[in-house]
Amino acid sequence: MQLDFFPSRSLTLYLAKMFVVRILAVLVMLVLVLMALDLLSATGRILTPEGNGQGEILKYVGLRIPQLISRFLPYSVLLATLITLVTLNQNSEVVAMKAAGLSAHQVLAPLLLTAAVVAALSFAFNERVVTRANTTLKAWDAVQYGPIPEDTGVRTNVYLTDGVNILTAATLVGSGAAITLDDVTWYERGPSGIIREQIRASSARYAGPGWALENPVRFDVGSAETEAIDEMVVGAALTPEQIDLQSVDPDGLSFWELSETIDEFDAVGRRTSEMRANWWHRISGPLSSILMPLLGSIAAFGLARSGQLFVRAIIGMALGFAYFVVDNAALAMGSFGGYPPFLAAWAPFFLFLLVGETVLIRTEE
Fold first, then answer.
1. Which keywords, in A-to-Z order, does the entry hold (predicted)?
2. pLDDT at position 4 over 70
3. What separation in angstroms does the CA of 9 have from each of 165, 181, 185, 290?
4. Which one, of 245, 258, 194, lies nearest residue 221 by Cα?
5. Which of 2, 47, 100, 329 qualifies as a FRET site for 139, CA 20 to 30 Å off?
6. How far apart are CA 328 and CA 129, in angstroms?
């Protein structure tokens, strides 16, 4: 038995089924609670546009639930691990398995295999569902839950730089010379970076060169005066090709589309550290589910009647949540260029893999 990584087929199926049921139960509970809390703050904004009603609320729920599933699936795996292992320990099933000759790693093997399957499904779900939900929800939020432009190339929260000056837009539609920017703001800044004037416009179109603002209104910071302008062209150095690159939203791109975008940025010498960190995290993020049985394994061993089972469960939960804290911090540092992208995405994973293995080997093996 010691030469086989997995226990018997019956025991493997028994543990895997128990683990899957608890993962689904915890995930449904988390998603329902978080969705209800989210609706408390979002419903008022969704119903503000005229004509919006229950259908729009259900649409929002349909777009928000994939995001919640993607974000909290690893947490669900962690909590399901603790519930499963504590239950097995309390019922002396772990003692029975070890008495039959199984090692600690063999006891955990069915859970690790199940977590690997969950990680693969999570990656596919993120690529096929979550990226599309991100794009649609951001576009809908940018128009304050009103009608979304029909063009499929809608991008939101666009931030562009022209030297020291800044051009922002709530939405971007189209590509090339046919780009249209809506809810536009132009910030003209001095050499020191201080804003001298702000110009708001309902939309902007490419004027070749520059961008013609429609119905612009200027606010002079120095005099604090506001005036309407008949016509104005800004951002002469901003070409449609540059905007196509600058307005990319990594969260709305699939793994392969993001890879192509990174290559395009590299070709023109643009900074890619944030997108590279995001690209690597598309793999390491779902794989975090495999860590959870290892980090929570401390709750499986030790005698339940010793009175330390609750303490062991707390330690397992602390290790799991510590991983998520370190992972988010490292990803943020990678986005700002503090860490190399590969290190930002993978260092927490391998660090806690070593921590989990060390704890398991030194205490149980």
1. Cell membrane, Membrane, Transmembrane, Transmembrane helix
2. no
3. 65, 60, 64, 21
4. 194
5. 329
6. 22
Report yes or no: 64 and 161 within 8 Å, Cβ to Cβ: no
Q: Who wins on pLDDT, 234 or 125?
A: 125
Rounded Cα–Cα distance for residues 51 and 205 (Å): 29
The answer to whether 122 and 73 are in contact (CB under 8 A) is yes
Q: Name the residue among 198, 205, 190 with its Cα closest to residue 219.
A: 198
The pTM is what?
Answer: 0.74
Sign of CA dihedral 345, 25, 89, 103: negative
Q: Residue 22 contacts by C-beta under 8 Å, 6 or more apart in sequence? A: 80, 83, 84
For residue 191, whether the previous peptide bond is cis, meaning omega lies within 30 degrees of 0, is no
189 near 164, Cβ under 8 Å? Answer: yes
Residue 118 has pLDDT above 90, yes or no: yes
Are 98 and 312 contacting, i.e. CB atoms less than 8 angstroms apart? no
Over the chain, what is the mean pLDDT? 83
Beta-carbon contacts of 170 under 8 Å, excluding residues fewer than 6 positions away, are: 142, 143, 156, 157, 158, 182, 183
Which residue from 145, 121, 181, 170 is spatially nearest to 63, judged by alpha carbons?
Answer: 145
Straight-line distance from the first to the last Cα atom of the chain, in angstroms, rounded to the nearest whole number: 15
